UniProtKB/TrEMBL annotation:
This is Aldo/keto reductase. One of its GO terms (molecular function) is oxidoreductase activity, acting on the CH-OH group of donors, NAD or NADP as acceptor. It comes from Armillaria solidipes. Substrate binds at H105. Keywords: Oxidoreductase. The keyword ATP-binding does not apply.
Length: 302
């Protein structure tokens, strides 16, 4: 499978179908190596990860022209009131004049406290406020496009419910919706909804956890295609028209992730049939089924 291909964005640009997630604690030398020997050109980071600066250093040291890269970053849940400042901070850390894609990391508005991404209420829940909503934040993001500091804008962790609310005021349709997506969380309705609106779906935690990769169906298909379960899962994403953004600190796995089989249609369906509507990413549901201060109902997850 050709993993160097791109998918068209609704702004006229394009995004590589396979990215590299630059997660918290990633070694700058490892990141630079992924540019040199694994061939990655699509990198996904976020202000909260603390990896923008080392990623920027790795890109500069690679000697590869900036325009050959696709860089995505995100502003965090507590920066809704300071989006412009947040983007400027990210650009400074990355050492670049622009990002290819700028995302709203989460729809909920968490109270801003300098140096504290997780301000808490006395009961331990994250402190949110309704002083500003994501519709207002999106309006700010739309204006950012005019500055040239981001080529495309999008959202992350949006459901059909939150997207429909966004569309009541949005002048520009998000280019991308990055969501948790893997064989145990297929989200077929949301994927089809986004595709119908011209929104590219990008998957984080694309291979799930070990429990997904050790599923008997995944083991069987890995043997059939002479591949690893991870390679099979990534191939499944691409077969669904989904951009996959895996992360790995292992050089061998980074290389493997770019060598994917072409799955038979019936095997794509078999993998989709593993769906359990199971959210596995970070497992940070706080109390009463909330995530970062919002209930699953507010997020549109139930």
């Amino acid at each position: 499978m050709d993993v160097s291909r791109t998918v068209a964005l609704n702004n006229g640009g394009s995004i590589p179908v396979l990215g590299f997630g630059v997660w918290t604690g990633m070694d700058p030398e490892l990141q630079r190596g992924s540019l040199e020997w694994a061939g990655y050109r699509h990198f996904d980071t976020a202000l909260i990860y603390g990896t923008e600066k080392p990623l920027g250093e790795a890109i500069r040291k690679s000697g590869i022209p900036r325009e050959e890269f696709f860089i995505c970053t995100k502003f965090p849940w507590n920066h809704h009131a300071r989006i412009v400042e947040s983007l400027n901070e990210s650009l400074e850390s990355l050492g670049t004049d622009y990002v290819d894609l700028y995302l709203m990391h989460w729809p909920q508005y968490v109270v801003y406290e300098k140096g504290n991404f997780f301000p808490k209420n006395p009961d331990g829940t994250v402190r949110v406020t309704e002083e500003q909503n994501f519709n207002q934040s999106w309006e700010v993001m739309e204006k950012l496009l005019e500055t040239g500091k981001c080529k495309a804008i999008g959202v992350s962790n949006f459901s059909i419910k939150t997207l429909e609310k966004l569309f009541t005021t949005a002048k520009i349709i998000p280019a991308v919706n990055q969501i948790e997506l893997h064989p145990y969380l297929v989200q077929e309705d949301l994927v089809q909804y986004c595709h119908g609106k011209g929104i590219v779906v990008a998957a984080y935690t694309p291979t799930g956890t070990d429990v997904v990769r050790k599923d008997p169906v995944m083991i069987e298909l890995a043997e059939k295609y002479n591949a690893t379960p991870t390679q099979v899962v990534l191939a499944w994403h691409l077969a669904r028209g989904v951009v996959a953004v895996p992360k790995s600190a292992d050089e061998g796995r980074q290389k493997e992730n770019r060598k994917l089989p072409v799955l038979d249609p019936e095997d794509v369906q078999r993998i989709s049939g593993l769906d359990r509507n199971a959210r596995l990413s970070s497992k940070i549901a706080e109390v009463n089924r909330t995530r970062w201060g919002w209930t699953y109902e507010q997020l549109g997850w139930e």
